[in-house]
Specification:
This protein has 296 residues and is mostly helical. It is built from 11 helices and no strands. Helix 7 packs antiparallel against helix 9, helix 9 packs antiparallel against helix 11 and helix 10 packs antiparallel against helix 11. It is globular, with a radius of gyration of 30 Å.
C-alpha cells in the first residue's frame, strides 16, 4: 500500500504589510517606504506651491487689468516702476521729495521709538499688576476700557498735546504697543509657579532680587510674545497714521502717490511694506529663540 502523499506546505516567510493587516484587523498597515530623494520633494514643495500661488495672483491681476479695471497697472508695468524706484531709493530732492528708502527709514524710526517707550513703561507696570493685587484692581478697569480703542483714535489727542507730526505718530505707536506688552507681562507674572516664590522666601531674597532672579527670567517668554505682537501691529498702524499726519514716511508716500494717481508706485510700496514686516518678524523670531527658553 502506497503511503499517503503529504501536501507541500510553503515555509512561512515574512508577511507583507497588507497581509499583516489582513491577518490582524486591528493592526494598521505600516506605511510603504518612500523612494527617491526626500530633500528634493521638500524643496519642490517649498518652491512650487508658493510659485503656484503667486501665479494665480498674477493671473487674477491680469484679468482685473484687462477686463474689470483698466486703470489698474499691469504686472509688467509695475515691475518696471519697481526697478525705477529701487534704482535710487535714497535720493533726496527736498523735504517733500525723498526716495522710498528714506520713507521706510522714517517710518521704522517712529515705530522703534514708540515701541521702545511702550516696552520701558509696559514691562514695569505689567510687573506691578502681576505682583500686587491692589495695583491690579486699581488699574485693570482703566486698561480694559482703553485697550479696545483703535490707536488711530488717539491721533487727534497726540496732535493736540505735541503740536507736531513726529511725536504724534510716536505717541500713536506707543498706544498701540503698550497694551499687548503690559498685559502679557502681567499674565506671565501671575503664572509664575508658587514653588519659585517659595524658594525666594527660603533664600530670603528681597523684592528687587526676587524680581531680577525669579520673576524676570520666568516671565521672559510672555514679555517677548507681547513685544512681538506689539511690533507687528505697530508696523501696520504707522502706515495709516502717516497717511493722516503727512510729512515723510511710507504711509504719506502711499497717500501722496494716490493723489498723483500713480498706482504703480503704490503697489511697489505695498510690497516693500510687506517685506519690511517680514524682516521685523524675523528679527523678533531670532530674539525669541535666543531669550525664550520655551523655544529651545
Amino acid at each position: 500500500m502506497n503511503a499517503a502523499v503529504k501536501p507541500i506546505v510553503p515555509a512561512p516567510g515574512p508577511k507583507s504589510p497588507v497581509a499583516l493587516a489582513a491577518s490582524d484587523p486591528g493592526r494598521a498597515p505600516a506605511p510603504a517606504p518612500r523612494r527617491g530623494f526626500p530633500w528634493m520633494r521638500r524643496a519642490l514643495r517649498a518652491v512650487a506651491l508658493p510659485a503656484m500661488t503667486f501665479a494665480v495672483v498674477i493671473g487674477v491681476w491680469l484679468f482685473l487689468h484687462e477686463h474689470v479695471a483698466p486703470g489698474l497697472p499691469s504686472p509688467l508695468a509695475t515691475w518696471h516702476q519697481a526697478m525705477e524706484i529701487l534704482a535710487h531709493p535714497f535720493y533726496s530732492s527736498g523735504p517733500n521729495d525723498k526716495g522710498i528708502g528714506w520713507q521706510l527709514l522714517y517710518s521704522l524710526g517712529r515705530v522703534m521709538a514708540g515701541f521702545g517707550l511702550a516696552v520701558l513703561v509696559g514691562v514695569p507696570v505689567g510687573f506691578l499688576m502681576g505682583t500686587s493685587t491692589n495695583f491690579h484692581r486699581a488699574w485693570n478697569p482703566l486698561v480694559q476700557i482703553l485697550r479696545p480703542v483703535s490707536p488711530l483714535a488717539w491721533l487727534p489727542i497726540g496732535l493736540l498735546l505735541f503740536k507736531s507730526v513726529n511725536p504724534s505718530a510716536v505717541f500713536v505707536i506707543f498706544i498701540t504697543c503698550i497694551w499687548p506688552t503690559l498685559l502679557n507681562t502681567a499674565a506671565g507674572v501671575r503664572d509664575v509657579p508658587r514653588d519659585y516664590l517659595n524658594v525666594a522666601r527660603v533664600l530670603k531674597l528681597n523684592r528687587w532680587e526676587t524680581a531680577r532672579r525669579i520673576l524676570l527670567p520666568a516671565t521672559r517668554p510672555y514679555i517677548i510674545t507681547g513685544m512681538r505682537l506689539s511690533l507687528s501691529v505697530a508696523w501696520m498702524v504707522i502706515v495709516a497714521a502717516e497717511m493722516l499726519t503727512g510729512g515723510v514716511g511710507i504711509g504719506y508716500y502711499v497717500w501722496d502717490e494716490w493723489n498723483n494717481l500713480n498706482v504703480k508706485s503704490i503697489i511697489v510700496a505695498i510690497v516693500l511694506i510687506g517685506v519690511v514686516g517680514i524682516a521685523l518678524e524675523l528679527v523678533m523670531d531670532v530674539i525669541q529663540k535666543r531669550f525664550d527658553y520655551t523655544r529651545r
